[in-house]
Amino acid sequence: MSFDYDVMVVGAGPVGSTIAYYLSRNGLNVAISEKKREVGYPLQCAGILSKHIFEKNELPDEVIINTVQGAFLHTQNHILNVETQENVAYVIDRIAYDQFLLNRATENGVDLINQKVVDVDTEEGITYFSNNQFITSKIIIACDGHSSKIASKIGNEQKSYHASQMLVSIDDENMGNFRKSDKKKDDYVDTFLSEEILPGFLWIIPLENNTYRVGLFSNQSHKNQDVTLMDFLNENFEYEILERYKGFIPIFNDKNQLVKDRVILVGDAASQIKPTSGGGLLIAFDSCKIASKYVLEAIKNDDINILEGYQKEFNDKYLKEFSYQFKVQKTLNLLNDDDLDYLFEKLKRNDCERIISEYGDMDNQSALVKEFIKRGLIFKIIPTFLFKKVTNIFGF
After folding, report:
1. How far apart are the first and last CA of the chain?
2. Which helix (H) or strand (E) holds 393?
3. What is the signed CA dihedral for 197, 200, 204, 206, rounded to 10 degrees?
4. How confident is the model at residue 23 (pLDDT cuts 50, 70, 90)?
5. What is the pLDDT of residues 257-300, one digit of tens each?
6. 239 has which bridge partners?
């Protein structure tokens, strides 16, 4: 059977553009489709990446807005400060980054098709477009986001949290009063936990010139999230709202398929998202490398069954980490605001700011959980009446 392309990538966001680039760089004939006329719009991301980004993908200096070396962690009445002596995260211009990655792909020979995909034939490798045209390819890679039509086509369950974010101007005095600290304002992010938002959280990410991305993800509707954000801002700051954004964060489901016939899923379409933080770009970039290996091998050997190795390798690498994060999330969901205050007070008394600073990692959170378990801190910081439930969650 003759095909128009070796690979058809659906979705030209950062994940689709990255895997298209990897495959074209390795000699494959690749096309990428995108329904938007300009990638990156509207902004639907907090735009912060851990220091491990350079292990996963290219990050040009021109898209880096700020660097971060620590965090202030808040409950209603307590604050923890965790920090390092080096940069642990990069705040980026996400729109510029998306465009950089797509340009990199097209400059390397990837054909860009500005059409909306309406259906695929997973067995025959046919991608159908809204203009009544179609393209055939040996493999279709779905990178079409949280509400992926292709994920739905192969029977995957798709659930998401709502996410809302604002670009806000806040002066140094206001931010210092909120943190109860005079440390440099743009070197730290803030997270805020409350029973109203769990299992998500609220974040404040510093950009430049006293501007911040203030957002949250939760089970609330976008309308209710707006109320929560406005209440939070009104209670803590004098501010000016410059822009507003809405989005969705997929919920990882280990029962979902990543491979079916000639189709594979990567990124949000595959719900490859960290349960506790809602971040997924670095995992998705790593998945691009994993998937590319099996795509190249499958095409070289004319055997699409080889694609099954992608799901196995992804699961072997990430399911245990995700399991720890789900356990942390379930534990936090047991807590009300008083319990969260109690937790933070105990964390402070047990030198946990130092431990979190030493072992905390945005991308490998299980290392910190294991350290807490090893030191017996879990039962020192959790309210006594929750011991049994926490024991059941962690399987002690």
Report:
1. 55
2. helix 387-394
3. -170
4. very high
5. 999 999 999 999 999 999 988 889 999 999 999 999 999 999 99
6. 170
The amino acid occupying position 49 is: L
For the segment 324-341, what is each residue's pLDDT rounded down to a tens digit?
999 999 999 999 999 999
- DSSP track, 41-75: PSP-S--EEETTHHHHS---GGGEEEEE-EEEEE-
Could you give the CA distance from residue 362 to residue 318 in angstroms, rounded to a whole number?
14
- C-alpha 241/C-alpha 262 separation (Å) is 46
d(CA 328, CA 330): 5
Residue found under tokens 């949000």 = 268
Q: Which residue has the tokens 């509207």?
A: 42
AA identity, residue 212: Y
Token pair, residue 3, equals 């095909």
For residues 335 and 328, what is the distance between their CA atoms, to the nearest angstrom?
A: 11
Per-residue confidence at 367, pLDDT binned at 50, 70, 90? Answer: confident
Structure tokens that stand for 42 in this block: 């509207």
Question: Which residues are CB-neighbours of 2 under 8 A, at least 6 positions away?
Answer: 136
Question: Alpha-carbon distance 262 to 260, whole Å?
Answer: 6
- Quick one: which of 111, 21, 58 has its CA closest to 295? 21
CB-facing half-sphere around the CA of 225: CA atoms within 13 A: 26
Who's near 28: CB < 8 A, 6+ residues apart? 6, 7, 295, 296, 299
Q: Name the pairing type of β-strands 30-33 and 48-50.
A: unpaired
278 and 271 Cβ atoms separated by less than 8 Å:
no
In which element (H, E) is residue 128 found?
strand 126-129
How do strand 188-192 and strand 89-92 relate by DSSP bridges?
unpaired
Question: Nearest-CA neighbor of 253 among 331, 392, 152?
Answer: 152
Question: Can you tell me the distance from the alpha carbon of 356 to that of 353, in angstroms, rounded to the nearest whole number?
Answer: 5
Residues whose CB falls within 8 Å of the CB of residue 45, separated by 6 or more in sequence, listed in order? 94, 247, 281
Structure tokens at 315: 């699961």
- CB of 229 closer than 8 Å to CB of 216: yes
Whether 198 contacts 336, CB under 8 Å? no
Cβ 76 vs Cβ 337: under 8 Å: yes
Going across the sheet that includes 211-218, the strands are: 79-83, 70-74, 188-192, 202-206, 211-218, 160-170, 239-250
Q: Which residues contact 144 (CB under 8 A, 6 or more apart)?
A: 10, 11, 16, 117, 150, 151, 269
Give the three-state DSSP class for 214.
strand
